[in-house]
Amino acid sequence: MHDHLLSLLIWLPIAAGIAVLLLGERNIVAGRWLALAASLVALALCVPLMRDFDTHTAAMQFIEKAAWIPRFQAYYALGVDGISMPLVVLTALMTIPVVIAGWQVIDKRPAQYYAAFLIMEGLMIGVFSATDALLFYFFWEAMLIPMFLIIGIWGGPRRVYATIKFFLYTFLGSVFMLAALIYMYVKAGNYSIASFQSLPLTLTEQRWIFAAFLLAFAVKVPMWPVHTWLPDAHVEAPTGGSVILAAIMLKMGGYGFLRFSLPIVPDACRELDGLMITLSLIAVIYIGFVALVQQDMKKLIAYSSIAHMGFVTLGAFLVYAIVRTTGITTGAGMGMDGAMVQMVSHGLISGALFLCVGVLYDRMHSRQIADYGGVVNTMPVFAGFMVLFALANTGLPGTSGFVGEFLVILASFKASFWYAALAAVTLILGAGYTLWLVKRVVFGPIANEHVAELHDINGREFLILGVLALAVLLLGVWPEPLLKVMEPSIQHLVSQAAATKIPV
Amino acid sequence: MNPHLLIAIPLAPLIAAVIAGLAGRWIGRIGAHTLTIAGVALACGLSLYVLKQLYWGGVAAFNGPVYTWLVSDGVHIQVGFLIDRLTVLMMSVVTFVSLCVHVYTIGYMSDDPGYTRFFSYISLFTFAMLMLVMSNNFMQLFFGWEAVGVVSYLLIGFWYTRPSAIFANLKAFIVNRVGDFGFVIGIAAVFSFTHSLSYTSAFAAAPQIAQQTLPVFGGVNALTLICVCLFIGAMGKSAQVPLHVWLPDSMEGPTPISALIHAATMVTAGIFMVARMSPLFEHSDAALSFVLVIGATTAFFMGLLGVVNNDIKRVIAYSTLSQLGYMTAALGASAYSAAIFHLMTHAFFKALLFLAAGSVIIGMHHEQDMRKMGGLAKYMPVTAVTCWIGGLALVATPFFSGFYSKDAIIEAVGLTHRWGGTYAYWCVLLGAFVTSLYTFRLLFMTFHGKERFRDVAAGHGHGHDAHDAHGGHGVHEPHESPWVVTVPLIALAIPSVLIGYFTVGKVLYGTYFGSAIEVLPQHDVLARLAADYHGPAALALEGFTGLPFWFALAGLVTAWLFVLKRPDWADAAAVKFAWLKRILDQKFYFDWFNEQVLARASRAVGTGLWKVGDQGLIDGGMVNGTAASVGWFGGVVRRVQSGYLYSYAFWIVIGLAALLGWFLVHA
Predict the structure, then answer these.
(1) Do A443 and B157 make contact, defined as CB atoms within 8 angstroms?
(2) Structure confidence by residue, pLDDT tens digits, B426-442
């Protein structure tokens, strides 16, 4: 089974998705259970993936390779290392709450809804496990289609504007990446990402490739100033769409920087790291202020996501400034570790927060903060979860939200006092916008008769929030298992990023 | 020392808190309080046992890991304990006060619907505080630091339907986060020099860090920057000016919390932290001067605010601010032991004062305004006597515990040669008068003089019969509280009187702390005081002739004159010095500035960036602008694709001609 574990992880959800589609809307009960079973099996498949993962090597594991398009030397090549494996597991994990959250809520074409999420799960796992650049690109673009449909069909009133904005933004960025990949294919003779990583490139070439990658990945992260599609997409997307968007899709940008930009064009990264760090810090501070004044819960969490993803790009690109300041790479690995942990943690926390908003939205059909107040009086159990996830969102030690931010701040001081100081502003702003939200929505006297009629979460909702709460706490109290998986790959990445590829 | 035993100390309250919090519905009220009290009692017993082992048993300090939190880039960040005499003193104080508060809560919260939740929170707090003081590394210190902050947040907002409570808890958390902002930078700075987060390596590297300069703000000493940043964290947690604003508002929480968290333990975390970091601070005179000036300023000016307030809990809250200022000033004078000693004595008598105030509030049927009290000593004798004991300890009456600690601080600040020392000395000396003034004003207004609650009740009775029926102020007289309330008062009153007398020789002038606190010989003001020390009785007798005592006596006389003898003088003074009263009533305008300037500016910046930046420039200019130009381009292209055959034929001809021309030129 190990020989095809990754293939199973990709194609099993896709096959299940197609099956749900074929069962159709009439057999939706069977379709629903099939969807749940498939997502659970996918997570179960992650158990051998984690158990048999060798934490002592940076090499790709669970590799598969088959001819795909021989004419272009493109292979169906899969494999995971310490950077992609946690993201694969995160994807499998986060699909389950999405399936369960839609259980009684989605009444419009539910079969298609589940099918879209299952197919997307497979495609997203494909993105993280492809070791062939063309295959990666295939998954990368294919993934947009189900998300496009999810927002477009099950979205809110302004869904058409949001979908088109989402699609154009992300597609436009990707096209340039494709050009860069083809350019390197011409030089290297195949599409293997590993061969791109060892391909010598002049500084000029690297700059162009860097720019192409930047467009593709910065839109996905999203980085300032190409972030404005995200709040719109989140606001219009159904709960499940928001969860996947925030928890997994944004991670693809961060993953792209770690997998492509840093190892393939290290010299251009070295030259332009100031730009990356500046944009990251703008994300933390500018977006933090913007989040403060949002009136819509989903928009607030969307902006909060952008600010948190700022830590991912900051941590990833600290290596050059650290080398410039201290002369050695010590500490750079910590920044990248922080970036990775932040991605996983943000996946859990933002997913959970969007689920919380979904719970409220299902009952009140409003996302406006002003329509709420005193929810704790009628939904005490829910309030407990919401406060926990909000505190995790503020980076509270003991929750996963702390680990990544802490590591990035520690590493950034090695690069510059100012990087650390500006990044640490998130402590204040993050607490400000998150807890002010909690104050206005959760606490206080019952604001109106709608809040008075609310009923607390049911077993289904309790289950998904409870599991995520456990994950958030566990990762906060004992992050070492995750770090251990990543360590060799991160060290390898640091050495790649710090090296030069300019031919002499 | 057995590590398992040490792990059990924080774990016992944690487990109790988790069970009471999650299963409170099933185990019930009695189950919840029995379980949590057992957990804290176990922690307290074990702490005292460790204290015995370390001090009398001759056991060496423990410094070891519990588990590896993470390894990143070769750096092992571990959860671990450093248990020396400083730690164990804190552990004992924290668990003892916590135990008293747990018992007291049974009575105080008996009719509250959030009973089990409350017990869960205070046990969770005990866990967090223990993790903070027992830590041997900065990560865990920060964990405990933030965790106590969160529990404080939850407890200030315990009565979550009150708008004032949920405003206060948000404010407390954010102001603390401003401090933590500095704190985390300080930790990152330490890390950048030592590549480790353990105390041991930081302490060892301190003299060497002190030689380095960081290229920020035109070049500052690296250790000074580290110490100032760490101290900014302490300013938030220990409520020093200008980050003190959250503490008075935190009185929105239930009274046991004011006693446990906002007087005795959590707010002293900053004091403890600086003492713990003495090996760092000792090498930076500039940072210690900063500490000294901030502390002394807080000690005097925050005390002044206590003089004009009429809410019994808020007066004690300002007193706490002022006393924390004393502790901070002691740290700044390198008298770390004196700060910790005052922390200990203060924990007992301030917890006592708060719990006594709580007892008064219960007795007065949830009335906190001292103007509606008076003459309560007759109705609540146990509360009155214990409150007087707490008050006498607070004003540093010789022989009481507060005397030994506070007198030492004033003397030590007087002896220091540090920059700002003279200013600090006058602040702490005048502070003695202010302390005495607000303390006796509180005691007189509450327990003596005219029984003003009768006027209030009568006034209510005439005009607002309906309101009176459920207002709780009725005609019934104040009553003494039940035993679960008074027993903790007595339990705290005993150490409030005695603990100074019996421990001053060891803790302050002896060798109790040993190597747990580091003081460079040239800074050691306490050693100079110790040279004149001839036993606690002689020290106390000498205290009657000291300047602080006469200042305190002046405060007593003033309070007596203005409150009991000639209350009309107080009114006259309020009119005559109206400008001063306004400044004090406005609390030096800190809240006004924060709310009207800082908070407004933040929201304005956010709105500006959102409307102008995101919606105007990025979406309006770039995105929809691009869409518009694409639309325009599409319109042009559409015109080209007209569908008419002749048009296509025309374009084909043009195209061919162009291509041919190009080939001709290049061939």
Answers:
(1) yes
(2) 999 999 999 999 999 99
CA distance B520 to B529: 15
Rounded to an integer, what distance in angstroms lies between the CA atom of residue A288 and that of residue A282?
Answer: 9
User: Encoding tokens for residue B109?
Assistant: 């919260």
Give the three-state DSSP class for A190: coil
B191 contact residues in A (CB cutoff 8 A)? 410, 413
Nearest by Cα to A288 from B602, B174, B611: B602
Shortest distance between the Cα of B35 and any Cα of chain A, in A, equals 22
> What is the CA angle A486-A488-A491, rounded to 5?
100
Contact criterion met (CB below 8 Å) for B432 and B410: yes
In this structure, are residues B416 and B334 in contact, taking their beta carbons and an 8 Å threshold? yes
The per-residue pLDDT of chain A, averaged, comes to: 92
**How high is the pLDDT of residue B604?**
86
Region of A422 please: left (phi>0), alpha (psi -120 to 50) or beta: alpha
Beta partners for residue B79, in sequence order: B67
Indicate which of B67, B70, B212 best probes the interface with A, i.e. most A CBs within 10 Å of its own CB. B70
With a CB-CB cutoff of 8 Å, which residues 154-213 of chain A face chain B? 165, 168-169
pLDDT in tens, A154-165: 888 888 888 888
- Produce one character per residue of B378-408: b if its CB has 16 or more CB atoms within 10 Å, e if not: ebbebbbbbbbbbbbbbbbbbbbbbbbbbbb
A424 in B contact zone (CB under 8 Å): yes
Answer whether residue B333 shows pLDDT above 90. yes
Range from B1-10, B221-230, B476-485 carrying the lowest mean pLDDT: B476-485
Spatial distance between the Cα atoms of A324 and B434, rounded to a whole number of angstroms: 55
Spell out which residues of chain A touch residue B619, defining contact as CB-CB under 8 Å. Answer: 228
Q: Please compute the mean of the pLDDT values over residues B474-488 and round it to a whole number.
A: 80
Q: Is the pLDDT assigned to residue B353 strictly greater than 90? A: yes
Helix, strand and coil in chain A, % to nearest 5: 80, 5, 20
Interval B570-598: pLDDT, tens: 888 888 888 888 888 888 888 888 888 88
Q: CB distance A228–B160 less than 8 Å?
A: no
Structure tokens at A65: 């390779």
Q: Which residues of chain A have pLDDT under 70?
A: 1
- All residues of chain B having their beta carbon less than 8 Å from the beta carbon of residue A491 are 73
The beta strand positions in A332-467, using DSSP E, are none
Q: Measure A128 CA to nearest chain B CA, in Å.
A: 23
pLDDT at A119: 93
Q: What are the strands, taking DSSP E only, across B23-87?
A: 62-72, 75-83
Helices (H), A189-202: 193-197
For residue A104, the distance in angstroms to the closest alpha carbon of chain B comes to: 27
pLDDT at residue B464, rounded to an integer: 39
Q: Which of A290, A376, A377 sits opposite B610 (nearest CB)?
A: A290
DSSP A479: -
> In degrees rounded to 5, what are phi and psi of residue B373?
-110, -140
Q: Taking a C-beta distance cutoff of 8 angstroms, is the pair B210, B221 a contact?
A: yes
- Separation CA B371–CA A501 (nearest Å): 79
Cβ contact A443–B160 (<8 Å): yes
Residue in the structure block whose two tokens are 């005009």: B463
